[in-house]
Amino acid sequence: MTDWRRAATLSRTFLATATGAALVVGCGAIPGGSGGPGDTLTVMTFAPEGTKATNMPGMTAMAKAYERWVNSKGGINGRKLRVLTCNERNTPAGAADCARKAISEKAIAVVGSYSQHGRAFMAPLEAEGIPFIGGYGVSSEEFQSPLSYPVNGGQPVLLAGAGHQLGRACGQVSIVRPDTLAGDSMPVLLNAGLKANKAPEASDIRAAEDTADFSASAREALADTAGASGASAKEKDKEKGCVTAVLGERTETFFDAFRRAAAEKQRTPQISSVLGSVSQALVNRTGGKESPFEGAYLTSWYPVSNDPLWDPMRKVIAEHSFGDDGVDPDDSGAQTTWIAYTVLEEVVKRFKDGEDITARKVARVLNQSEKIRTGGLTPDLSWRYQDMRAVAGFPRIVNGQVTFQIVRSGRLVAQPGEESMDMTPTLEQAPRAA
Which runs of consecutive H residues, i.e. helices, occur in 170-310? Predict the structure, then answer.
């Protein structure tokens, strides 16, 4: 990491510390919840539900299932866990409201949450010293704030991984993404992976986040991946055009329009996406073995959903979700929340018996602790200063690992010939994307 990046990171850390000190002096007490032995630890999980764009009900549902499970076995080191949930509504106001609720309820952490509006929720949390553990990774602030502790590399590593995956198979790539602030960084990140494989930059196709008509975007993507004419037989495979869409729940709607456009032109470009936009549940819902996503490429943070490493989570869902349809063990939001709460539990266990637990103390343990294990679902995690990586715009990335998957016979399986890969070196060479 260069000297100026170290200085910038230290500056942000010192600012957060100074802000906390001022609050202690002004109010006479450290904000945030606390918990001695036998006390209740309050945390929050927020995510959008019932909106016209991306919805992540599996995150809050998984949080409540975890709460019931951990309390059924006596809590965490004798401390009962109280999980608050909040509908973020996919708006800056909704994200800020959830953060303020966490503050008013004296939460010691926000855990396993989803929001594109990082500025709206991180600023209030930073002012009160409340750590943000294991967000989904769609806002740049999650990889910039000294009080954010991501468990995966978020959209940056997924997109760089998708570029690597497609750069080895495609002559030309088009990316269809939301016309939002979060979406603006997507082509830059995808191109980093493409460049590493000496592939040309992708065509950037924007779509309104809440649109229901992707016909124009589909035609544009199809035209941009027409492929080079006159390619030699040896280059046939590399000539193939590829289309990747990263539109959350709208990804299915886009590919429906794209299939119709491709059928009219009698073409079959390779399709692809990333975890969260395409899932096993989506493949099941659209026909399983007969799904139009058969053969699609997918980049993920985690092992495939039928890996035995997920068995503990599946057991908790089966026994403690009480028929909640929002909890799907194949859902990336539920998986991320499970890992985030695993981190929280390990952090709480590192407090001494009888010690009060506050938001600021949780952040201090996270900043100073040795690596935290997540049952093999991620590399061991640590957010100490020496663990930060020199990724421009995303200095809080500590886990850049991705896995490469493909839909085969209706199941997401590991892509043959592709091992999991750390995309951090690729991102370190990319221009600033946020």
Answer: 181-184, 186-196, 215-224, 236-239, 251-264, 280-285
